[in-house]
Specification:
The structure is a homodimer of 410-residue chains.
Chain A: H1 4-13, E1 30-31, H2 42-59, H3 63-66, H4 72-84, E2 91-94, H5 97-111, E3 117-121, H6 126-138, E4 144-148, H7 153-156, E5 161-167, H8 179-188, E6 192-196, E7 215-219, E8 232-236, H9 280-293, H10 298-319, E9 325-326, E10 338-342, H11 346-355, E11 358-359, E12 361-363, E13 367-371, H12 379-395
Parallel strand pairs in A: 1-11, 3-4, 3-5, 5-6, 6-7
Antiparallel strand pairs in A: 2-8, 7-8, 9-10, 10-13, 12-13
Helix pairs in contact in A: 1-12, 2-9, 4-9, 5-6, 10-12
């Protein structure tokens, strides 16, 4: 079994180790919930201060021009693009993931007018299920959403399928789907593919170009570290740029917003997907987070991510044999950057760990979820987290009366 | 004609005068563009710092519970409610104005299933026109949007009209419409009324309860001072709470978000209109702005607003007779809190004023727009702004070559 000294050694050799100092993280905490909310970077803190106190406070309305607020959605989009393997001009930052999925679904359905089926994953994140149903109902031409077992996708692919919308990394188990393979099968059926990258962006290398993805959207508040409720982003393959239509249009997606025309004329490319004035403070936090990402090689992130999750699984199995069902795939090509442990007393376990400063989260009915973000999680953190887990179970801390009634653990 | 000394005297007697010190405003500027972007308050600066550096930075994901982030949409909604005459539980803060209008239109159309006409104002803000068209097209049951001359509304009200959507204060001219009267006429035709309060909230007293308004939405970055791209808000009359449906649903509007149910079950009341996790930093800025509004009596705001706009009109007419067409109504009951001056060289005039530190804005084709926000604009500011305007025109500064090519003046 890997020792703590070996973990210290791994940290010393880690090419990403120096990045931890960019994050404001109390060393008394072991933060394994960056898959829910990434921590604050020094650069985001400074960017938010500047945007609030200088750009808004001093520049006032002039900052829409002088501070470049108008161009933020596409300028930051181009920086997010690097994280998903997209070229410049193909990603826009706007709204939230759910609204962007709505827009992508709306335009994808229009691109397949003769087809009436939207396929999604029964285990998808719930907002994805809700917005898919919502859009199907709005586009009242008999579109139906079929939420399936994703492992049986091929059985459902037929010439009535307009769109398949899947989340690339499962939010519960951390299972990663085959981006290229599924996209190709969906295309073979004549359908379009929308990927949700909520748990992928900044967690695993993505290459939408090679994988021939049509559309994708993601959030920035998880592994990207853009802060609570941070903006979403959308990718549209360049081959679709001339054909998409923002079904929820607003003035900032107009080709000339200040011409105030009565009829919506879309801006070229992904820019038309912007609806409203973006939250400048939220974009500033994202900009700061991207200052760190600009320095990062995603292949190094992936190598460390797999090493951290492998180490966690190894230590759990060695120290607590049979205690947990490990819901996350062992196979590297099916794993995101989190590990999910199933346990009937999982809620109490996560709460007891929280009291020890080990922050993970719980998902009904029995999943203890631990995210391993390679930019700031250390090998010793993994070692120490498992040490705490062993002590919680040995001392029965998870069976404390206070944990009998469940409250949300975000 | 009112003298500068008299203006100094008016400021000394102004019951709102002390509020100016809550704003971070350089005394070398005369800020008459709070109808586009309100200035930063000390309280917003502090709230954004706290939310960023303490709640996100130190509390991390735990702050969704411990810092009350989950309840912000309704808690802040209850504070915005005071500004529009709504009771508790009837206003929610979320998304942006345009998305909230989309949701209100969507649910209103469902409440009038046999009717197919949406009426709006040809002179409405463009996002409103675009989103109305977008929603009509999405709800593809033959709904058509008719953009009319709002003065001829009665001619268009018939039993096919499902919804009328108007902006209460015209963004170009500052004309204020008759909230109660129009709502009553729309109801008489069996239609529902959606009001856009973008240029009304914090600018004029509003009483949605007495006016029997069905639905309303607004933004918070203008007179409310919540910062660039600040969140929107929506009002739903309590009589509709049991009947509305969020047509763009997401997990945070679910009755039990952490139950992760496959099917959307709406939270009670307006809460269901929340779709995604809100930007906590944007909400923090709004919270700070509301700290000031909590201390304000809207009738005092109205009294000063009318005095400021009267004074501006008087001074412009006295010092520059015949130079401008005053597009804003003289009648108090038809005036918001801005004055629009038409001039064929309006663009150059606004740019030349900007260089003198008098910030207004320009709207095609010929409107110089000046907003008078009673919380921080002083009577002497009005006097001095007109003084600058006189000098610009006397010296021909507005005809400078640099102003021949128009750039956006936000």
């Amino acid at each position: 079994m890997t020792s703590r000294d070996e973990c210290v050694g791994l940290d010393q050799k880690d090419p990403l180790a120096e990045l931890r100092s960019e994050f404001i993280l109390d060393d008394s905490l072991i933060y394994l919930d960056g898959n829910s909310l990434g921590p604050l970077t020094t650069s985001s803190r400074e960017r938010v201060r500047t945007a609030t106190e200088r750009e808004w406070g001093e520049g006032l309305v002039r900052s829409w021009g002088s501070a470049g607020w108008m161009e933020q959605p596409t300028r930051l989009g181009d920086r997010v693009a690097r994280l998903i393997g997209a070229g410049p001009g193909a990603v826009v930052v706007a709204d939230t993931l759910t609204f962007l999925l709505a827009k992508l679904l709306g335009t994808a359905l229009e691109l397949r007018p003769g087809r009436t089926t939207v396929i999604t994953d029964r285990a998808n994140f719930h907002s994805d299920l809700y917005i898919a149903e919502g859009m199907a109902r709005l586009t009242s031409r008999g579109v139906r959403v079929v939420a399936i077992d994703r492992n049986r996708l091929d059985e459902y692919l037929n010439d009535d399928v307009a769109v398949v919308m899947l989340t690339h990394v499962d939010f519960r188990t951390g299972e990663m789907l085959d981006l290229s393979g599924i996209t190709a099968r969906v295309h073979q059926a004549g359908a379009l593919m929308i990927w949700d990258f909520a748990h992928s962006t900044g967690a695993v290398p993505l290459d939408v170009t090679t994988a021939n993805v049509d559309f994708a959207a993601g959030c920035t508040y998880k592994y990207v570290n853009a802060g609570p409720g941070g903006p979403g982003f959308a990718y549209v393959a360049p081959r679709w740029h001339a054909e998409i239509r923002n079904v929820l249009p607003g003035w900032l997606g107009h080709v000339a917003p200040f011409d105030f025309e009565e009829t919506f004329r879309p801006a070229p490319g992904v820019r038309q997907l912007v609806t409203s004035s973006p939250s400048v403070l939220a974009l500033a936090a994202l900009e700061g987070a991207l200052d760190v990402w600009d320095r990062v090689d995603m292949s190094e992130v992936r190598t460390k991510s797999l090493a951290l999750t492998d180490l966690f699984i190894e230590l759990v199995e060695e120290t607590l044999p049979g205690e947990f069902e490990i819901a996350t795939p062992r196979s590297h090509d099916q794993r995101g950057s989190q590990v999910a442990l199933r346990h009937s007393e999982g809620y109490g376990i996560v709460r007891a760990l929280l009291e020890r400063g080990v922050i993970g989260d719980f998902r009904d009915p029995d999943i203890c979820r631990f995210g391993f973000a390679p930019l700031y999680v250390r090998y010793v953190d993994v070692y120490d987290a498992v040490g705490h887990l062993v002590e919680v179970l040995e001392k029965g801390e998870h069976q404390d009366d206070r944990f009998r009634v469940r409250h949300a653990v975000t």
